[in-house]
């Protein structure tokens, strides 16, 4: 007897599910390595964290960058996450025909999804070569910054980040591609 295997969905099939009504446009789902992942409902504190991260990064990144909130990134044939905040090079109209395939910085605001964001999401972002991944950890009120993506045996999806730095309220962090910009961690926390 053959072993049971999961059926992995492609981004093309996933997008067709919405067109065909299999998935509703308002459903909180993402495609992660071929699996359709259902996310918990948005609650007040994480939603405020998303807004604060957007506002802070929008003030730092000007022309030549787009700060996107909960919009898809087409990272591979099998992954189309919708990070809470992503900073991508270009202008808004650059993505009228297709979602961006990379980002300079991705931020996930986490409480109930913390282990998922540290594991599966980190693996997908690292596999795509996203150079900087931040988790605004609302459980411990800290910012986790992940850098140096690459292959990592034993990590989710075979990829991870080699360095992890924790920044606490009261600390100020550097922002990628903006050497003069400093961001107080407290500005991100609700």
Question: How would you characterize the overall build of this protein?
Answer:
A hairpin with a 7-residue loop joins strand 7 and strand 8. With 190 residues, the chain is of the alpha+beta class. The mean pLDDT is 94. It is built from three helices and ten strands. 22% of the residues lie in helices and 32% in strands. The protein has a single domain, classed as Alpha-Beta Complex (tt1808, chain A). The longest helix is centred in the N-terminal third of the chain and has 17 residues.
Distance between the termini: 54 Å
Structural class: alpha+beta
Quote the average pLDDT.
94
What would CATH call the architecture? Alpha-Beta Complex
The number of domains:
1
Please give a handful of descriptors for the protein shown.
190 residues; two-stranded antiparallel ribbon; tt1808, chain A; 3 helices; alpha+beta; 10 strands
Secondary structure layout:
Elements lengths: L10 H10 L8 E4 L2 E4 L5 H17 L4 E5 L15 E5 L15 E6 L3 H14 L4 E6 L4 E10 L7 E9 L4 E4 L2 E7 L6
Parallel strand pairs: 5-6
Antiparallel strand pairs: 1-2, 3-4, 4-5, 6-7, 7-8, 9-10
The gist of it:
With 190 residues, the protein is of the alpha+beta class. It has helices spanning 11-20, 44-60, 114-127, and strands at 29-32, 35-38, 65-69, 85-89, 105-110, 132-137, 142-151, 159-167, 172-175, 178-184. The chain has a single domain (41-187), classed as tt1808, chain A (Alpha-Beta Complex).
